[in-house]
Amino acid sequence: MAEDKKKLNQNESVEHQAPASGAPESVDFEEVFLTRGQLMWRAFKKNKLAMFGMWVLIVMYIAMIFADFLAPYNPFTQNLNHSLKKPTTVMMKYKVEDLKTTLAPYVLPEVSYIDKLDYSQNFRSMLFPSRIKVKLNDGREIAIIDKHVVEQKEDGTIVPKYLPKGRKLDDKFVLAEGIKLVVRTISYAQIDGQWVQYNDSTEDVEALVFGVDNAILEKGRNERVTTSRTARSFVAQNEGWKVGFFAMSEQEAMERLTAVKLEQELVGIKYYDTDFNEYEISLDEAQIVSYDYKFYPVKWFIRSWGPDKTDPERVGYLFWVIPLHYHLFGVDNYDNNQYVSLNIFGADRFGRDVWSRIIFASRISLTIGFIGLFVTLILSLFFGALAGYYGGVVDEVIMRFCEILMAIPGFYLLLLLRAVLPVDLPSSQTYMLLIFILAFLGWPGRARIIRGQILAERQREYVEAAIALGFPDTRIMWRHIIPNLATYIIVSSTLSIPGYILGEAGLSYLGLGIREPSASWGNMLTAAQDVYILEKAPWLLIPGAFIFIVVLAFNFIGDGLRDAFDPRALG
Question: Disordered: where is this region (predicted)?
């Protein structure tokens, strides 16, 4: 329509002419007409927050579609070695006593464990030997190299692959299937200021005995002391009555025991050659000259999990159809070390990657709003149109039913409807169930507003003309009246989507929605109910930040659309 267009003076072109007579330069203007859609887009763009919200949602929905590609790990794979693991630290520097160099980004193996010293849950980085050079007492030198950190060329020569820059292969070396440290561990208790050994020393080749400080390899020993009441209580209960030459009760031992100490000493190196023959070198007959530890490079476009016939759980698909072998980023775990992972948002209590689960959970949290809104619109348009167009008894029955539903507090009705249904349904059925429950709660209020607008539109001349021409009621309603409600429907729908997202999150948080092992942003927050978990793993609250950002983005867009549909904003 002509009134929907606006003349703009754009594309102004100036012809620079310099006539001899000295006449002024002529200026030509081009008339451009913008459609109503273009005017609305221009008004929408003026709202900076609405544009920000739009780009946020575009990014989120692209991430949802390509979740398999963006997730470095299978969101259902558990690894208790990484229980409540903090976000991974990506390193660039490689430091040992005789070598300092800069590498490409890499990570170290990490583990979550119960400390045997004070019996608290801890988390630390670990070092695994990749190369240890020793000098025997007879003067010979030999290097033991893990075979995973080198590669063999076609001509049979062996070259470094995952040894640090500046480190060459030694003239005399042996390739090992694995290198382990033999460590003697001795425990002491402090009784009346005196250290007393309270258990026998053990040589443990499987112990996780050396950390980032290289204390075991550099100094040959490591020592830790704690005054933790938990540790002292454990010693008192198990060893207190027989410490030294004293026979004392558990209570007396607890009162006199003031500290606990753990000493660890490197006493040897054990390795296996490529034929799995076992060798052990005692440090009484050799000394360590130099050493290196394993590092695991962080790479783009890496195969970390995907379709694999030997492991049915390793399934990743692009657009849910195309098998996906490579992912955007990940760590090259070349020797399948169970302690290696790249968790940019940390891990949950089952050792599952939080980032991967957030991306996969977005498929539920971001789609439930649109599907629920679609169902709600159908119900509200159908009943609201019937009540508003026909009035009378039909209007009374429908509106009284809507008022009954609206009189019940929404969240309690939500709990009631969910509670009367089975709680052990599969996640796919639970997902559809949540959609219809949320839609059932959302349609009465919208139906009342639509009914009021249809009552007003029904008195307009164009509706009376359509009735006079004998058009059917359905055509008048869906071809003439409903299109004139598009502004309200679009804006209100955008503003109501966050309600569906929050409704699903609330039910899942209470354990009545999406359940483990499936992921939604709501049920991921369930792990954050425990104060102890919040103190140890605050990164488990990150899904709540995603809910906050998405809800805020939808509200920004709703405000922008409301401005764009306002005739006064079109200029």
Answer: 1-23
Residue 382 has pLDDT above 60, yes or no: yes
Instruction: Spell out a b/e string for 178-201, using b for 16 or more CB atoms within 10 Å of the CB, else e.
Output: ebbbbbbbbbbbbbeeeeeebeee
- What number of other Cβ atoms are within 10 A of residue 251's Cβ? 10
Report the sign of the C-alpha dihedral through residues 205, 207, 212, 216, in that order: negative
Number of other CB atoms surrounding residue 339 within 10 Å: 18
* Dihedrals phi, psi of 109, to nearest 5 degrees: -60, 145
Torsion of CA 371, 376, 377, 380, to 10 degrees: 170
Q: Reduced to 3 DSSP states, what percent helix, strand and coil does the chain have, rounded to the nearest 5?
A: 45, 25, 30
Beta bridge partners of 151: 159
Could you list the beta-strand ranges (E) of 247-393: 257-273, 278-282, 286-293, 296-302, 317-318, 322-323, 327-331
Torsion angle, CA of 235/241/245/246, rounded to 10 degrees?
120
Class of 366-522 in CATH: mainly alpha
Structure tokens at 26: 């002529």
Q: Distance (Å, rounded) from C-alpha 111 to C-alpha 124?
A: 6
Tokens of 101: 């160099």
Angstrom distance (rounded) from CA 164 to CA 101: 7
pLDDT at 257 over 80: yes
Mean pLDDT of 142-158: 89
Which tens digits make up the pLDDT trace of 475-517?
888 888 888 888 888 888 888 888 888 888 888 887 777 888 8
Decide if pLDDT at 16 tops 60. Answer: no
| CA atoms in the 13 A half-sphere facing the CB of 452 | 6
User: Which residues of the chain does CATH 1.10.3720.10 include?
Assistant: 366-522
* Cα gap 110→89, rounded to integer Å: 10
pLDDT class of 322 with cuts at 50, 70, 90: low
**Full-model pTM:** 0.81
Location of structure tokens 């010979």 = 140
Long-range contacts of 388-393 (CB under 8 A, 24+ apart): 388/450, 388/451, 388/452, 388/453, 388/454, 388/455, 388/458, 389/454, 389/458, 389/473, 389/476, 389/477, 389/481, 391/455
Question: Which tokens belong to 313?
Answer: 């759980």
CA 121 to chain centre: 23
C-alpha radius of gyration, the chain, whole number: 35
Residue 124 β-bridge partners: 111
In 3D space, the residue among 151, 183, 182, 145 whose CA is nearest the CA of residue 294 turns out to be 145
Distances (CA, A) of 299 to 305, 351, 356: 14, 21, 17
CB 519 within 8 A of CB 359: no
Helix (H) or strand (E) holding 170: none
